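This week, work through this protein record:
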Amino acid sequence: MPEVFQNYIDGKWVDSRGGATFENRNPADWDDLIGVFPKSTVEDVDEAVAAAKAAFDAWRLTPAPKRGDILRRVGDLMVERKDEIATEMTREMGKIKAETLGDVQEGIDTAYYAATEGRRMFGHTAPSELPNKMNISFRIPIGVAGIITPWNFPMAIPTWKIFPALVCGNTVVFKPASYTPRTATTLVRILEEAGVPAGVVNLVHGGGSVVGNRIVEHPDIRLISFTGSSEVGKRISAGASETLKRVSLELGGKNAQIVMPDANMELALDGVLWGAFGTTGQRCTATSRLILHKDIHDSFVESLVERASKLRLGYGNDQGVDVGPCVSEAQRNTVHEYVEIGKNEGASLVLGGEFATDGDLAKGWFYKPTIFVDVSRDMRIAREEIFGPVLSVLKVDSLDEAIDVLNDSVYGLSSSIYTQDVNGAFRAMRDIEAGITYINGPTIGAEAHMPFGGVKETGNGHREGGWTVYEFFSEWKVVYVDFSGKLQRAQIDNY
């Protein structure tokens, strides 16, 4: 019998009121049934929100350093179980174990960072324009936070959102992706064991059309943090505006790596192989475009194809595997549809472009690393997010053209340039339209203590990670203390 999982509401593990369930399977071996999870209803969400609302007053009055202490314990528990969590995460969503170990470590880093931020919830003071009066400000919690997360970083991204929300004094209703409900359950179990009080964190499994939509429209949810596609993000933004919720959106990307003739070519090759085919290309920061100067284009492509053709596909918990499966059959089909679009648009396919079905690969949703050349900036494969192991190569004549091509996108998340010209590097840092730019590094590899996010249709201006996310999960309270003993009037002409 498969393992049966539940929602977590008001400190109790409970079934969905509706009784419906869905299966969670291993994308590298679809016969491997991981577990059965509740397909929740609107009523389940309402119960979770009610529990979070009821728990808010006691939690907001818990001193922030004490809230941080609980998250330090969360980090300790994740360290103890790091290998176990990573193994199960690879089984659930497919990326290789070296990457899932990194996913867990990101959660650990975020926990310890959040713990210290509990003692750094700084406010500001400023002198008053009037005598015998003091002006102070400090940050306060907002209320119930709706957390909606994707499947590609099923531990790291929930921790980026939930840990700051908790340290700031908010309570949480958490809807994970339906492809990765087990990792979400593991995280909530750790939060429970670490001492998070009943009702402060609530977990509701299920689809976006029911659970996600109810979180967006619920009047008692005060803020939403979402990571996913730009299409869904726009709908969330529109829906949340009905109740004027605060919303943080981390959305799509069409990230590019530039390689100039003076670059360290081996380093640039390492970078694009990791950026394009790590996590099977299923990252919002994945290198989807490679912009090559004409002087090195042909030789670089030749080396890239040779290196990429040697990448080993397989189950990510096996030794020696470089690339795992797509997360689902539907995602693999989407990738293949884009490959057909690229061919029909006139791009030249020089590697891959087909399902990988040899031996044990036939059990899962594997797709061969794919490279197109002769790609123009107006082609769909150069403009639309594919979220798979497909790389489009574009040729340019100069650094100015490279930056122009890179910026010719509705997205602006991550970017990269390989060059040893310090002047060119600084021009790229200044002129590239992206929230993140790497110099002589791939487009993937964000660090937990730095802001993460992008511009244009990549998001709505907020940032995950670092110190900036604590601004999103709290709001400013200003207090004026007048100890003059008489009426003093500001905002009139006192001069």
The chain has two domains: 7-251+459-478, 255-439. The domain at 255-439 is CATH 3.40.309.10 (Aldehyde Dehydrogenase; Chain A, domain 2).
